[in-house]
Amino acid sequence: MEVVSDYIDFSQNRELREEVKKVMGIGQIMLETGIEQGIEVFFLDNEEEGIPRERVIEKLQRRFKLTEDRAVYYYDRFASRDKLLCKME
Are the CB atoms for 82 and 47 separated by under 8 Å? Predict the structure, then answer.
């Protein structure tokens, strides 16, 4: 919002300010969704190659600039989803 407000004066237009906030929120959600899809593909590729869990977590941290806790979260999330999908097949 700060960047937009450098160019637009919202002081007289509350409705416009609220609309910009909504659009920026939608953009953030789309960005996060895209990043999560990238992490899932990255995980699946490493799993397919037989890369050990700890190595994948290290690579997630480095490639996606995640904390160790967040990398473990994504690893566990996609590992459990993949196991569920394998059971369904």
Answer: yes
| Contact in structure between 78 and 44 (CB atoms under 8 Å) | yes
- 42 contacts: CB under 8 Å, gap ≥ 6: 59, 60, 63, 64
Mean pLDDT of the chain: 82
The pLDDT of residue 6: 62
| Degrees to nearest 5, angle at CA 51 with 49 and 55 | 150
The pLDDT tens digits for 22-53 are: 777 787 788 788 899 999 999 999 999 999 99
